[in-house]
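Postdoc handover notes: sequence design on the structure in folder B. Input tokens:
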């Protein structure tokens, strides 16, 4: 291994550590929903907003960052660090300033949602910026590198679920903020821009329409939308499903919290393996396989609440597959679109996907209340079906040769 190779892998490891620590902010409130529900008497709809607010904030942040060209105006490591530190402060403000008495009021809940949305805005400076920094170090083997980074943020996103089984909800949120603060300091001290920094690009509003006119890019985006239809709804509600199943069978709340962590965190392994596979077998084949497995789990998981052990096994497979293909859709779009507009194309993809997640996150508890977990989660399989159809069509097209070195 050359010195250059050693340096790029060490930078990837540092970026992965930063993402893992910082992304603990994402589900810091969602992981303690049950405690907040009991303390603040939250409704079913209010519970959904603990995650939806972050999704909306992320979309606003991603779009604003692209339009204002923040990654060109500020050194990417400093932008990443600043956003992680500000996100830590916003997250810590929730347990610090919202007492139980305030939390039970509509005004207190509005403050909570505003702080969660602002945290999402900051995370838009962490995740995409980390991806851009990774790309400056990797031209070859980018599928694996993206998989490692997405795997790290998956485990980081899962971490509050593990803490929720061990500590008071305020402690969980403070711990997430401490992790994000450490992420920011680590980024400032160690993360650097690699030798493959792309030329500065300008966000192009007109490409919003043109990106959907290109059949290959459109199909890659549709595959991503099918994936996102399922992903965050699964991450939000599968831990809740497991908790209900475990408690109904007198299993301990800490075991339920550990299972909730595991079914999200196991996706980190899926991301790395999918990254390795995609570089060799092709992005279309990898994403199709992942979508088929996750869709099958969505169809079956909700019907297994009376069998917590079997439910845990299915959810672990689901968690492994549901995010494994995530990075490959972004890689596909970057390979298929006009090189001048890669940044714009990825922003469009990200914003469309995260906006879609708000619908399914909100829909699952409503369907569950009326028809049960089986139908609520089976509904999510519509996304993988849609995604498989479009990725299969993309695989059959000539454009597929542009991806992953010609592997389909």
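Designed sequence:
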């Amino acid at each position: 291994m050359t010195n250059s190779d050693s340096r790029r892998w060490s930078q990837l490891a540092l970026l992965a550590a930063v993402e893992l620590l910082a992304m603990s902010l994402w589900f810091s409130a969602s992981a303690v929903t049950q405690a907040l529900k009991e303390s603040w008497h939250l409704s079913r709809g209010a519970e959904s907003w603990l995650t939806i607010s972050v999704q909306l904030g992320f979309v606003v942040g991603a779009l604003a960052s692209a339009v204002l060209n923040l990654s060109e105006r500020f050194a990417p490591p400093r932008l990443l660090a600043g956003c992680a530190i500000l996100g830590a402060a916003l997250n810590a403000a929730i347990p610090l300033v919202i007492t139980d008495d305030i939390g039970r009021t509509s005004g207190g809940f509005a403050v909570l949602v505003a702080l969660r949305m602002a945290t999402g805005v900051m995370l838009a400076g962490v995740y995409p910026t980390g991806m851009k920094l990774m790309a400056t170090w990797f031209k070859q083997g980018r599928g694996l590198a993206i998989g490692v980074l997405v795997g790290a943020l998956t485990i980081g996103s899962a971490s509050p679920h593990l803490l929720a089984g061990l500590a008071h909800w305020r402690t969980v949120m403070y711990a997430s903020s401490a992790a994000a603060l450490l992420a920011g300091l680590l980024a400032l001290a160690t993360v650097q821009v690699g030798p493959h920094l792309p030329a500065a690009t300008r966000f192009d509003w007109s490409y919003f329409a043109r990106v959907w006119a290109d059949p290959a890019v459109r199909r890659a985006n549709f595959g991503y939308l099918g994936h996102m239809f399922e992903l965050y709804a699964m991450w939000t509600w599968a831990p809740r499903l497991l908790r209900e199943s475990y408690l109904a069978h007198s299993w301990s709340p800490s075991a339920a919290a550990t299972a909730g962590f595991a079914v999200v965190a196991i996706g980190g392994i899926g991301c790395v393996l999918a990254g390795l596979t995609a570089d060799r077998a092709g992005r279309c084949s990898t994403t199709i396989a992942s979508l088929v497995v996750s869709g099958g789990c969505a169809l079956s998981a909700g019907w297994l609440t009376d069998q917590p052990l079997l439910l845990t096994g299915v959810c672990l497979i689901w968690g492994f597959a549901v995010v494994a293909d995530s990075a490959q859709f972004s890689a596909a779009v970057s390979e298929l679109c006009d090189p001048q507009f890669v940044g714009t194309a990825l922003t469009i993809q990200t914003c469309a996907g995260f906006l879609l997640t708000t619908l399914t996150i909100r829909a699952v508890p409503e369907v569950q209340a009326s028809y049960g977990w089986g139908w609520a989660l089976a509904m999510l399989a519509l996304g993988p079906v849609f995604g498989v159809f479009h990725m299969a069509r993309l695989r059959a097209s000539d454009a597929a040769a542009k991806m992953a070195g010609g592997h389909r």
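Context for whoever picks this up: The chain has 20 helices and no strands. Don't rerun without checking with the PI first.
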